[in-house]
Every structure is written in C-alpha cells, then in structure tokens.
Amino acid sequence: MRQSQLFPKTIKQAPKDAVALNHQLLVRAGFMNQLIAGSWTLLPLGWRVANKIIQVIREEMNSTGAQEVLMPLMHPKEIWNETGRWESASEVMYKLKDTRGKEFALSFTHEEIFLDLARKYLQSYTDLPIKLYHFSTKFRNEPRASSGILRGREFLMKDLYSIHESKQDFFKYYEQVSDAYLRAFKRFGFDVIVTEAAGGVFTKNMTREYQVISPVGEDTIFVCDKCRAGLNKEISKSKPGDKCPKCGQGLLKEERAIEVGNIFPFDTYYSEKMKVYFTDKDGSKKPVWFGSYGIGITRVLGTLVEIFHDDKGIIWPESVAPFKIHLVQIENTEKVKKAAEKLYNDLLKQGIEALYDDRTDKTAGEKFADVDLIGIPYRIVVSEKTLRQDCVELKRRSEKKIELTRINRLLRFLNEKIKNKDEK
Question: Closest by alpha carbon to 357, among 338, 377, 379, 342?
Fold first, then answer.
C-alpha cells in the first residue's frame, strides 16, 4: 500500500473527548473513527488489524473442530420469549418494530438463534456434537459506552456455540476451547489471567473470563501471586492478601483488568426451554448440554493498543500488525525513488506486506513521527546516505537500535524473520 493513497491521513491532536489511550492513538493514527458514543468505523488500517485478529481466532476455533457460519442480526421476539430473555435481558437489548407491528431485537448474543438452528437438524445422538461459530456485530444498550473501543454499543465479536449429548462430552470440549483461547491470546502477546466469574444476563452458572491486567480495565479481579488463578471481585468474598482459594499457597493481589474473552456453561437450561432434544442410544429423548464462548474482536484491538505502546505511538505485535514493513523514502531524488520503488515491488513479490511512504510533501521528521504513531513492526529507510553504501536502514519499532543492512541481503533476512514466522 502506498501511503500517499492511504485513507485517512494521520492527525497530530487526539479528539478532545478521547480519554482512553486506545481512543487517542487509534484515531490519531487513522485506524478508527467515532460515529457516536460506542459506535465506530474501522478504517482501512483498523480493518486490516481486525482481520489479522479474526484469522488467528479462526485458526484456533477450527482446531477444535468447530465450523464457521454467519447468523442473522435481527431476531424475532418469539425466539427470545422461548427462554424468557425478551424480558429478563431487556435492559441490554435494542428492540424495534417493523411497519406491520412485528417486534424484533438486534443481536446482543446468539444463543437462542443457534439453538433454533440446531433443533431444525438434530435428531439422534449421532448428530452430536454440533459446534458452530461466527464473527458478527453485536448491539448492546450500554449505559456508559466508554474507554474508546473497549466498551461499545455496537462491536465486532466472535461467538462459538456447541451442544453435546452428555455433561462429560460438554466439559471435555469446554476445556478444549479454553486451551484454544489461551493459544490465541498468546499469539496476540497477551498475558491472560483465567478468572472465575458470574454469568450476568447469560447464566446463573459460574463462568470463565480471560482477563488482561491494565489500569484502564473496568473489572476488578484478585490474582494469585503463585498459581496465577483469578477471581472476579463481583463473586469473591476474598480480599487482597488472603490465601488463594485454589492453590492454598499464594496470596491474592487486587488488579484492574480488561475482559477479552469468556466461556459459559449453560447445562441443559436453555435447551430444555427451547425443546432441543435428541434421541439417545436407548431410544429416550434427552436435552442437549449447551455452552457458548465469546471473544470481542474490537475489544482485543483496543486492548492491544493499551498494552503495546510508548510515548510516540502504537507498537503492534507482528501477529496482528496491519503491515509487517513500513518502507520510508527520504529525499526525492531519482536515485532514491528508483531504489525505494524497486524494494517495494520486491517486497510485494516475496509476499511481505508493506506500507510504502512515497509522499513527497513530508519531511523526514514528519515521516518518522508517522512511522512511530502507526506502529508497524519494522521500519526500512532508503536515502542517499544509505544507498552510497548499498544499504538501507532497518529498525524494529520495539527497539531503538538502527542497523545498516545491505540491500542484497535484506530480502533474505526478512523472509527468515517475518515470512517464515508467519508460516509457523
């Protein structure tokens, strides 16, 4: 991508209402734009990052045997009445009527929709388990949309749903998904705390949250300093300094944290209400065991910025960066332009994603400021000075060290350090 053609341009000042760091940096760097409180446009750079996040999660969900689908966003009232959540979850739902007076809700979750789909095909135990997931927009009537893209009224989410013939089979898969979550979060560079929590409007069962410690987090959790188990303060009778109830050895420390994922065991509660039954081996009718598993895509995006940044801008992990290389042309001589163009085309031929700063109306200082603000992992600089030595400057965004690298060795280095890492 040529930066001269990239929409939009970076801006020097953050919006006046931008309190959260992710709000400030993502807007300034041109990754997102706010329509209203809690509703955002993902701009080209932001959409690239979101798709990188989606691909990591897709790979890990597929590894559990789940299949990807796409379910509707507008749901009829009758579906929600089957479980009673048209009333019990009313405070978070956006409701509407069409011109014929028929009532609908915009999707705040998809448990009922998945179960309705599954019961249309489910007959016997041989049809189980069913494991489906999708990436979809969610709408929730948040009373206080805040913290940039971390808490919105409209957001992008991955939700996985599964039904099983037995409690044993369900919880076996529950742990498989938990392991897949941990792998995905590790690929993002997160140090996740697995936290016991309440189920909110979803279930009365205890659930599992995946929390990232951050001072901007809206959750308060207790974390064991030995086994790293977490407890959400909402359900804990503990206090800081108490012995860990799980390992009995470590002490609990209070932390602020951002919830980036969760998994919910529903037992047979929803399936009984919606009459999702199957015929067992002995010919008897039984309700399925049901669970759901969520990761907030846009929340992960915002959390990445909150965790990975410095005073100059964002520092994207390589797994989710919009591009791997930020190629910068300094000086507008024919020699420099020709060398930069050739290198850009060589990168593309090698399948290495690059943002090429080909702008001729910006100073070197302005270009370097944009490089740091946008946060792409590697910066390559082509200038008269470097070309005199048949070299380019190579710098990692996360490091201060600048290296002179011979052009004829550069692509080999990048293939080893970047492309091969992606293939792993």
Answer: 379
